């Protein structure tokens, strides 16, 4: 068995949002310190971390000082500039590793990786230019979605095509960025599997959660999802196959569309995931602790589900409901400490718990 990092070691976390904040809290509970690297001022994670570096991703002096002050590096988002990672990896181990980032940073690489593994994705085509879009529309057809290959999140960088006439506008929406066309999947509902793999290669998956999005943003995750026992095992096996293929260390989110013909993999996220927040109230060991355990060489903990949970994101003005939520029974409240409630900004979440 791997010897875990000693108590008092420091975990470097790239990105200082709410995921970095909850990772820092989990690290502290296991006796570790955390050091946040974040270009923006007053990051939510800064309130609970031992140290914060405020610097740009091309500031090699700051990156070097950050790396040499920590024992292991992880991250809360996948779009970290390659040059920053090239430097950091010469100084400290980065978990999850570069392969997971390479695959997930680009939708074309990601879909190709998934189909090479024998998994099913939406039909897709590389769209470097207008001619490629015309050709792809002949095979994939409409409805379909044009997505930027990189830097898409919460439904950003996406344009729907109802008919081929929409092609010109959709391409203009991409603003010259490389894109892929995806066939529209007529799914029954969406689920995600939050899965973990330790340094020793052990795999543990949380129960799949059922997700509801609107305007491309996750609103709720409910466990248990409406899956049969065999569907549940299949979903977990898909996540395990991805983890092993990437020789992955840490927590990974896998988003799946459920269709009458089986699962279609939408995307993977090499990090803790919004749809895994329910684990804070539904399991003895939640996704944040599981991630810290994995990257510091601990054995994975017991992530079996002891309660039914509905996680609800608090977005923008949802904060007005705080007085009622604060006194609601079986309700666990998490606020991210963000100063201003802008529309579509994730301000916190609540877990509505039904003990089993
Ligand atoms: P994404 O950023 O790829 O996760 O997309 C955000 C949301 O848009 C997904 O959770 C789905 O609800 C929807 N979506 C994305 N791709 C497709 C697709 N190919 N077919 C149907 N819905 C999609």
Tell me the CATH topology of the largest domain. Answer: D-amino Acid Aminotransferase, Chain A, domain 1
What are the secondary-structure elements, in order, as H or E?
EHEEHEHHHEHEEHEEEEEHEEHHEHEE
Q: Ions, cofactors, ligands: which are bound? A: adenosine monophosphate
Parts with pLDDT < 50 across at least 5 consecutive residues: none
Topology of this protein?
Elements: E1 10-14, H1 18-29, E2 33-37, E3 51-53, H2 60-68, E4 72-75, H3 82-88, H4 98-104, H5 107-116, E5 124-127, H6 130-140, E6 144-148, E7 158-161, H7 167-173, E8 179-183, E9 189-197, E10 203-205, E11 209-214, E12 217-223, H8 229-245, E13 250-259, E14 262-269, H9 279-282, H10 287-296, E15 307-315, H11 322-327, E16 331-335, E17 346-355
Parallel strand pairs: 1-2, 1-4, 2-3
Antiparallel strand pairs: 5-8, 6-7, 6-8, 9-10, 9-11, 9-13, 11-12, 12-15, 13-14, 15-17, 16-17
Helix pairs in contact: 1-10
Bound molecules: adenosine monophosphate.
Can you walk through the features of this model?
This protein has 356 residues and is α+β, with helices and mostly antiparallel strands. The protein folds into three domains: 85 residues, Rossmann fold (3-Layer(aba) Sandwich), CATH 3.40.50; 61 residues, ATP-grasp fold, A domain (Dna Ligase, domain 1, 2-Layer Sandwich); 167 residues, D-amino Acid Aminotransferase, Chain A, domain 1 (2-Layer Sandwich). It is built from eleven helices and 17 strands. The strands form three sheets. Strands 9, 10, 11, 12, 13, 14, 15, 16 and 17 form a nine-stranded antiparallel β-sheet that branches. A four-stranded parallel β-sheet has the order 3-2-1-4, sandwiched between helices. It has a four-stranded antiparallel β-sheet with strand order 5-8-6-7, sandwiched between helices. Strand 1, helix 1 and strand 2 form a beta-alpha-beta unit. The longest helix has 17 residues. The protein is globular. The two termini are 34 Å apart. Adenosine monophosphate binds next to strand 14.
